[in-house]
From TrEMBL:
Domain of life: Bacteria
Annotated protein name in UniProt: Indolepyruvate ferredoxin oxidoreductase
DNA-binding as UniProt keyword: no
InterPro entries tied to this protein: HACL1-like, IorA, THDP-binding, TPP_enzyme_TPP-bd
Gene Ontology MF: a single term: thiamine pyrophosphate binding
Entries under CDD domains matching the protein: TPP_IOR_alpha
GO biological process entries: small molecule metabolic process
Keyword Metal-binding: yes
One Pfam family named in its UniProt record: TPP_enzyme_C
Keywords: Metal-binding
Residues in Thiamine pyrophosphate enzyme TPP-binding domain copies: 448-581
Amino acid sequence: MAERSFAKEVKKLKMGAGETFRGEGILAVTKALLENGVGYVGGYQGSPISHLMDVLADAQEILGELGVHFEASANEATATAMLAASVHYPIRGAVTFKSTVGTNVASDALANLASGGVTGGALIIVGEDYGEGSSIMQERTHAFAMKSQVWLLDPRPNLPSIVKAVGDGFELSEASNTPVMLQMRIRSCHVYGQFTASNNRPPSMTVSEALENPRRDLTRIVLPPATYLHEEEKLTRRWPAAERFILERGINERFGDPASRIGIILQGGMYNTLIRALNRLGLASIYGDTQIDMLCLNAVYPLVEGQILDFCEGKDAVLIVEEGQPNFIEQAIGHMLYKAGARVILQGKGMLPMGGEYNGQVLVDALGLFLETHAPELLPVAKQAVNEPATPIPDISAKLPSRPPGFCTGCPERPIFAATKLVQEELGPHHISSDIGCHLFSIMPPFDIGATTMGYGLGPASAAALRNKDPKGKRSISFVGDGGFWHNGLTSSIGNAVFNKNDGVIVIVDNFYSSATGGQDILSSRADNPTKTTQNPIIDAVKGMGVNWVRQIDRTYDVTLMRDTMKEALASDAEGPKVIIASSECMLNKQRREKPLLARAARDGKRVVKPRFGVDEDICTGDHACMRLSGCPSLSVKDTGDPLRDDPVASIDQSCVGCGNCGEVADAAVLCPSFWQAELVSNPTRGESRLARFAQRIITRLQARREASRIVFQ
Ligand SMILES: O=C(O)C(=O)Cc1c[nH]c2ccccc12
């Protein structure tokens, strides 16, 4: 992480036995890895597990002392393949990524890893980005666990339970020779709490020791005939071993009164919200004391049949609280009960919504319905005798402005899309393929650019079929970020386009970081990184792949140049893909680095210049064309108070960072002469101060003269 320091978090990783660790769930996982003798850690950043990667990247000193190898993996497949170090060696390894997108990418390595099985504990920490705060398609990691037979832990969202799950996960993995996924939901990652730390433990075998004494075992390699035997071993040896471990270790927890006629089986991750819902219904204390019998599945795959049947024994009705669809757990439990001839009524989806996040209100409603149907006597009087409808909550969504995701103030990607818009204004609409990253905000107004997004690094790949048989006809335009480019785009998108003689225009949006995931360094980052090799130019990689037509633009804010280069690419006679590398630093990271430096320089009495832009109200016509081509959050509207002017004028607020985009856009579009640029000078020279005072005097005089002749409306 180039521009942010995690020194405070790193200090917490050093805590010893008995100290109280306070912090976020995902940081607790990071500490627990070190306490459990992990030998190596890898992963690919993404919300909500970026923090794990970022903190470890800054913790090289501790990792070095313990002999733990850490890598920022090229992508999730690389991360998962790294777990190969636990196949033959008794070394504990952990990797992390965002799920399900990362798991999709990882699934090749995941299936191979699961087939051969592991000797050392292999833990995959998946950040389950599901629910109202998610940025991705709504799917379940659970499906991957089932298809590859990888065990899935879903601990209750509190720090001691999360920390325990890390240790349990390693041991479960070793006891059953199977990789284990630790599912960390958004709210588990960000839950705040505390636990009592243990000492960090060096790995029982380091990766260096493994290299000095290499081992291989033919029966663990995924190649016939071993592959056929792996499946049998999964079913006859590894699965029963996992079930035994889950029971003996007491991974799943039982709460409430076991004699209760009704019961709830829930995913561990649902526990906090469920308790809150019971609490609101008057059926649980805020600390979780309740009479309702609950089986909390901290291991959601595999389910232990005996445990489930035992729980349901003698009950009238059982509710399954399982977030996400398909309802794998409910189906499995239904199947177990049917085979056993049980008569208990099974409730789940139907009473609960089929999909979407199970938030507090959803669970209050569903629990209310379940209890009303199967145990009305348990419901508090208020709920049983509802004789007044609840006060309706007014819908204010129509009145509030929506806040779609958009580019930051000063973002260097904005001018790229302003230029694209100008190109389309001239040459007509084109088919445009988008990728994943900040640049995907181009699909929102005011740009409205991009028709599909198929996955990370796959923007140009998703334009592959759109090949015009007329070489003079319209070509596709596609985008990929520098993050996606290095994740897999170099082969999947660029190599593919070269090999298949695609003639489309590919824009690589290079902002020097993997910005959307938190500003991590990548191969082409411009900064020095003490533990990574950076400064590998994208243009060299692209040329190495066989692209002949490449243009490097080093200041994306030059909208005229961007526009003209795109037009040239669309008209070029050159064969093969036309690649434009549009490079300017991510403004968020740039500000993180420069702001403190500038502030210190100004405090130290040094001369500091900050550019600012503004709009001349008297010239602005109020047509807001600048906003339609920019969308900068610092561009706003302002009422002049002049009754002869209908439209409010454009105005630039204090969040402006002086990137110059608005002026450039105005210039390229021949829009508007109303933008002005000023320089804010801290600690000016004596000459500058004198000049400013002189200019101010003249301006004041001119303004006074103009005011005198103005008609004033009272
Ligand atoms: O951090 C996010 O929100 C992302 O979507 C980035 C990301 C990380 N790994 C991926 C794999 C496939 C698609 C997106 C991502």
